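Intended use. Records such as the CheY chemotaxis protein or a CheY-like REC (Receiver) domain entry shown here are meant for training and evaluating sequence-to-structure methods. They are not intended to support clinical decisions.
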Amino acid sequence: MRHKNSIESNTILMIDDNPTDVLLIKEAFALCGENCEVYVAEDGVYALEFLKQQGQYSHVPRPNIILLDLNMPRKSGLEVLKELKDDLDLRSIPVIIYTSSTTKEDVRSAYRSYANGYIKKSADFDGCIKIAKTIQYYWFFTSILNEP
């Protein structure tokens, strides 16, 4: 089923260094049955190379949305978020914080850095499916995304 946006496919960049979390959410999106492709960057440095289509990422598509973990090696999620929102070419990509942290300071810092949403990770697969369905419904069927 095609969504109402005119984008060919729904592309998500997940920035997360936890292979279990990555696997759970990728499988959850796959089970939702929509045309959705999830790319993964295992840290903030790789994420920025992906988004700027540098090096090994020279031929990757621009993602429609980004799922960003806060706690990562080399460059934290908040550092990545600040760089994205400071970049005129990248700031229009919606960034959803997808993390295990629910501290008030992390939530506050994320929104002060212009995150478009904040979702607590689910530890079980059923929860991941609900999250994937909610993200798809809102971002790919309800909202109108800015096309690159």
